Amino acid sequence: MEIPPWVPFFAVVLATVLFLATILRRGGHHAYRLPPGPKPWPIIGNLNLMGALPHRSIHALSNKYGPLMYLRFGSFPVVVGSSAEMARFFLKTHDQVFIDRPKMAAGKYNTYNYSDITWSPYGAYWRQARKICLTELFSAKRLESYQYIRTEEMRALLHDLHEASGRVVVLKEFLSTMSHNVITRMVLGKKYLHTNEGDSGTTLEQCKWMIDEWFVLNGVLNIGDSIPWLGWMDLQGYIKRMKKLTKMFDGFLEHVVEEHEGRRRLEGDSFVAKDMVDVLLEIASDPNLEVQIHRDGIKAFIQVRLFSN
């Protein structure tokens, strides 16, 4: 049987990685006093201990090794803090040291190449984005101005529940629809999505699928993030799913931005911002911004606003 041409190459790469991993493990661990944790395997580290629900696996390990634990996810060291004291240490006392998130596929594909505040690295862009969120998008005055939307959608929920009285209903679906309507009206200015395909070309069911998929893909343990030289293989299929999701979401967000830009051009000097997209477009047009916000940045802001309310 003839050996495929890629097998020798793969064998050499694997042997090299194993050798380097062994050398680095022997030479590096003596330099630091590391927290306790399970012994890592070559190449994969402690990924073999991560089950279908990694947060539960990590919780079980922290019960064994303590509130400060050392793991290795493939090529990368991971320190897990799992107590209130450790949370204060990482998130308050030394927050600027640990503020950056690692460059992972979810940030690249799901948020326009790390353009939103969740995934962008700490720096001028992040500080500007945080300021925009605090003083413009989520200020007390801005949120208070949307009170009428919350009131109207609550009344609509009660009306729908009254109409459904006398039969079994899934309350979660009613609450999900109300929450979705409140968010889209606050962020986008109207209910773009309906049971049938609306003017945005996206149905309500497609939007719900995109939202569910977005949350799933932002929380998965992607092997390529931990072992970068395996990333191109997309062993779990997550990258393919991220690209499909991004393409669908981008089409919807492009429609939203174009419609809002059209209203701004039509109204000219009399234009008044009515929703968060309007506010973002006004901010992005300011030539005095420390870091200019481009179109992908605007769409990244809109996207994360849809999931953070």
Show the helix and strand layout.
Elements: H1 6-28, H2 54-65, E1 68-73, E2 76-81, H3 84-93, H4 105-110, H5 124-137, H6 140-145, H7 147-163, H8 171-188, H9 204-217, H10 223-226, H11 238-267, H12 276-284, H13 295-308
Antiparallel strand pairs: 1-2
Query: What is the helix/strand order?
Result: HHEEHHHHHHHHHHH
Secondary-structure-derived class: mainly alpha
CATH architecture of the largest domain: Orthogonal Bundle
Low-confidence stretches: 5-13
Percent in strands: under 5%
How would a textbook summarize the main sheet?
2 strands, antiparallel
Distance between the termini: 60 Å
What sort of overall outline do the alpha carbons produce when their principal axes are compared? globular
* Relevant CATH superfamily of the largest domain: Cytochrome P450
User: Helical residue percent?
Assistant: 55-70%
Mean pLDDT figure: 86
CATH fold label of the largest domain: Cytochrome p450
Counted by DSSP, the helix tally is: 13
Total number of domains: 2
Gyration radius from CA atoms, angstroms: 24 Å
- Looking across the biggest beta sheet, what order are the strands in? 1-2
In total, the number of strands is 2
CATH class of the largest domain: Mainly Alpha
Transmembrane segments: 6-24
Keywords: Heme, Iron, Membrane, Metal-binding, Oxidoreductase, Transmembrane, Transmembrane helix
GO molecular function, one term: heme binding
Family: Belongs to the cytochrome P450 family.
